[in-house]
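Continuing the batch. This is chain 6 of the set; chains 1 through 5 are on the previous pages. Same settings as before, nothing changed between runs. Recording input and output for traceability.
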Amino acid sequence: MNSNEIEIHKELKKYFGFSQFKGLQEQVITSILDEKNTFVIMPTGGGKSLCYQLPALIQEGTAIVVSPLIALMKNQVDAIRSLSSENGIAHVLNSSLTKTEIAQVKKDITSGLTKLLYVAPESLTKEEYVAFLQSVPISFVAIDEAHCISEWGHDFRPEYRNLRNIIKQLGKVPIIGLTATATPKVQEDILKNLDMADANTFKASFNRPNLYYEVRTKTKNIESDIIRFIKQHKGKSGIIYCLSRKKVESIAEVLQVNGISAVPYHAGLDAKTRAKHQDMFLMEDVDVVVATIAFGMGIDKPDVRFVIHHDIPKSLESYYQETGRAGRDGGEGHCLAYYSYKDVEKLEKFMSGKPVAEQEIGFALLQEVVAYAETSMSRRKFLLHYFGEEFDSETGEGADMDDNVRNPKHKVEAKDQVVKLLEIVRDTKHIYKSKEIVFTLIGRINAVIKAHKTDAQPYFGSGSDHDEKYWMALLRQVLVTGLLSKDIETYGVIKITKEGLDFIKKPVSFMMSEDHEYTEADDETIVTGGKSSGTADEVLTGMLRELRKKVAKKLGVPPFVVFQDPSIEDMALKYPITIQELYNIHGVGEGKAKKYGSEFVALISRYVEDNDIIRPDDLVVKSTGVNSANKLYIIQNIDRKLPLSDIASAKGLTMDALIKEMEQIVYSGTKLNIKYWLDDILDDDQQEEIHDYFMESESDKIEDALKEFDGDYDIDELRLMRIKFISEVAN
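Output for chain 6:
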């Protein structure tokens, strides 16, 4: 080591207590100390912040760190302050400070005490701050989360675009750009935008070998699946990401009711609650945080053991960043995502209101997520390929840490099909995205194909011996092996590479993995409020049926009035031994449980004891319970033919919320006669038309009905008619 190297090792030990740098840290720090523009691409948990903190502490002047999140800054400032006896060594400058606090910050910077000043990009645009910073020595400007500059980044912030002009006003200071996620396109964007093409670029490997990647089909019993998963990881810390605040609240509640210590976290909670919940998680007062993506930016909890995506994220960057919060200490980290194409359609719907260019980018990013979820090749290889990194799925570090590698799908020889695919890409002259390539192969026409007259070509339909799913799977696998490339600049147009052209000339074996089947059929197994998957205890079923017969006879009613068959089967699966647990049985409401339940739970309790049965704790997913007083009020007042609008306002409900309550009532078997209300909205012919639609339709989905009637009826009319239909036909 030369004297400089010895010096920075000494400083590392002095400030941070480490005797060794990690990965590329030392090279990056040397570049910054040489006052060079520096660009650092380092995955979450790779020790990015130390790269600018150490040089800032040992150089003359103050380093400015631009960061998009107040929570992140606060976290880092606290960490730096803990290294020094002086509080003023690090400061935050943002809109939350008082005049007195601002004066203190300026004083500490002027006296040379402050080494790191964290600012939000908005604060940097204030003229008074810029004028002040021009008057003091600045060591460098570090831009954290630099992908916010690029609209191709998953977290684009327009105010980041102007940073370059502001930094120029501060004189000739070196710029350090740092990001934890950057596809080649985003990297190029950052360098161009910060005008630092000459920067020393350092890119660490994105491979996190200790993380296990898994994707499961999202079914209606996702809550019990999550509960079961968490109970298998008892006492370990985890994060569950959901897309909406409402979902965050409801999942957190379900977990709490089921004996898991969990708190919600989203931007709709006040700052005090958010900070409290974050601290509870960091201090291990709770095991699980259920959050929107607002959570976890800069949460430096090293021992998060699992990250669950309840909803699929909008881009692979977000996914990578969020899963990257697991296992930062190098220990196990289980990354579990639930996938259903319905969620993707929901995200696409959200995007449809945005400007076209933004939509195109959004769709392109989302399609990558779909490809990741549906692929059957090594997920690690797929992810790393996306970030422009090669990975050997045989020998690479962490190669067996994913569900696809551990449970490999069947492979088939696809050499001839690869040639056919490559020829189509070549012959259509690189104008199409994946969808049109596949349509050309199977012979399906859409507007784009028609416009280019591709349907008139001899090769149109040449791959119709396989279906769309097959070709899509093959195309993904061919992309990852590098025979084709996707040009993200043009929103995902597929091009053939030199290797692809060579393959056409001299084809070799290509073993293709069959894709995952994510069928909606899996939706049928429900645990909360539906029949559970699993097999009922047949002996107990027989005993319960006998008891039902006896009770029914005594009351002079048919047996199904007491409990229906699905309820009996569910009891023989979940072994409820209290009236409360009986509420969670399919088709059993509170009233029914209290009315008929005592003899049944007594029988089950004896049976469990006599046969040493271990009850499936995790199967009795307690629901959070819906307001039964509301339900009663609704039922009684619909009987009195009170206008629905009056019922809603009396209970402080929106019309949408009232309809939701009514849907729950009829779907759990209670009749509601709302014809009196519908007669004011729709005439008999219209009612009959919608009734007939539901009678013949294969699904009761409102989206399908809206499509079918194409604007003739609005969503509330259709939902109310569906309530009437279920009430009359099913109950």
